[in-house]
Design a protein that fits this description.
Layout lengths: L1 H11 L14 E2 L4 E13 L2 E3 L15 E15 L2 E12 L3 E5 L9 E21 L2 E20 L10 E19 L4 E12 L3 E6 L5 E7 L1 E13 L6 E2 L3
Antiparallel strand pairs: 1-14, 2-4, 2-13, 3-12, 4-5, 5-7, 6-7, 7-8, 8-9, 9-10, 10-13, 11-12
Length: 245
């Protein structure tokens, strides 16, 4: 009888509440780390060319190269709060080509077919961005170095630059750009950016051929690019940043 009463009393006792652990706060994405990647895109260029003797325009029209490009990049980011600072270097090979028939000044003896293109360029830039967790909006600026190739061929009846005159130049300039980057996983990210590059000053270029013909001109180049790329980030020994709400 006592056992029955005890069991009934136990059944009437209130059940202790069950407490559940609060849901874990997901760590915010960290942009800190070294990264490497590749890019492809499209570029368009517009040179400004002067005659070094008269100071006037060299020829009109001039080639306005356009075409595809591709290359590789690498750098380092460091995140403080939502701000991300970094340093990036890249190298790009291009098929940005253009040609035109010039009809004045040096073409007085007959027209010239002018062909030119920037076949590679590299940049070293600082980056500053603001992150919204996995989304990074950034600007960049720094130095550029570009290599360009030229050909000029006389069109009959002229014999100037026959055989074809060729030449190259390499010049240092500056670059600025803007872009967005999104972290697809903890290590892989996708980016899209626009860049503008131009020379620091006029660059003199000399073209020659096999019989000693010499053609010279001064030039300032400008090239604009739209690039799409992927990066792989190596974790840099920094623990996850806890998101605050």
């Amino acid at each position: 009888m006592l056992m029955v009463i005890g069991a009934a009393d136990a059944a009437d006792m209130p059940t202790a509440p069950v407490y559940k652990a609060p849901p874990a706060i997901a760590p915010a994405y960290s942009w800190t780390g070294f990264y490497v990647g590749g890019h492809v895109g499209y570029g368009w260029a517009k040179p400004t060319v002067w005659d070094p003797v008269t100071g006037g325009p060299f020829a009109d029209p001039l080639p306005a190269p356009t075409g595809i490009l591709g290359g590789a990049q690498g750098g380092f980011n460091y995140q403080v709060g939502n701000w991300v600072v970094g340093l990036e270097a890249d190298i790009t090979w291009t098929d940005v080509k253009g040609s035109a028939n010039c009809v004045n000044f040096r073409c007085a003896l007959g027209a010239l077919h002018v062909f030119g293109y920037p076949d590679w360029f590299g940049t070293l830039t600082g980056r500053l961005g603001y992150s919204f967790d996995r989304l990074l909006i950034f600007g960049k600026g720094g130095f550029s170095r570009m290599h360009e190739y030229f050909e000029q061929t006389g069109i009959a009846p002229t014999t100037f630059c026959v055989p074809t005159c060729t030449g190259t130049n390499v010049n240092t300039g500056w670059t600025v750009g803007v872009g967005v980057e999104y972290a697809l996983t903890n290590n892989w990210s996708f980016k899209a950016e626009y860049d503008y590059m131009t020379d620091l000053d006029r660059k003199r270029t000399t073209l020659t051929n096999s019989i000693g013909t010499v053609q010279i001109f001064d030039e300032v180049r400008a090239i604009q690019t739209l690039k799409f790329g992927v990066n792989y980030k190596f974790d840099w020994g920094r623990g996850p940043v806890v998101a605050k709400f």
